Amino acid sequence: xxxxxxxxxxxxxxxxxxxxxxxxxxxxxxxxxxxxxxxxxxxxxxxxxxxxxxxxxxxxxxxxxxxxxxxxxxxxxxxxxxxxxxxxxxxxxxxxxxxxxxxxx
Length: 105
Ligand code: FES
Prior knowledge:
- This protein is α+β, with helices and mostly antiparallel strands.
- It has helices at 23-29, 54-59, 65-70, and strands spanning 2-6, 12-16, 49-52, 82-84, 95-99.
- It has one domain: Ubiquitin-like (UB roll), CATH 3.10.20.30.
- It is 18% helix and 21% strand.
- The radius of gyration is 12 Å and the shape is globular.
- The model has no long low-confidence stretch (mean pLDDT 98).
- FE2/S2 (inorganic) cluster binds next to loops.
- Residues 24, 37-39, 41, 43-48, 70, 84, 86 line the site of FE2/S2 (inorganic) cluster.
- InterPro entries: 2Fe-2S_ferredoxin-like_sf (IPR036010), 2Fe-2S_ferredoxin-type (IPR001041), Adrenodoxin-like (IPR001055), Adrenodoxin_Fe-S_BS (IPR018298), Beta-grasp_dom_sf (IPR012675).
- Keywords: 2Fe-2S, Iron, Iron-sulfur, Metal-binding.
């Protein structure tokens, strides 16, 4: 899997991700700035907020109610394409484009 991370200033890096990892884990493992993942993926911090590119957003499994609720607590306001990146688990052939918010705290 590949994750394209674009920061709020428009700089992009492409990371080769391990299948089964989440987008948050991929970011933290590779030192990608803009994603904190304070709670380790247990849906209790909302510091893993990302904006998902439209075509990729459509392809994701719909979010659970808990994730939807947590998205109201993000540091930068949620948008239509907001997700918590710890809830996006990567499949082998998956390629996804996300933009990180200016801050997570
Ligand atoms: Fe805490 Fe995603 S890492 S909610």
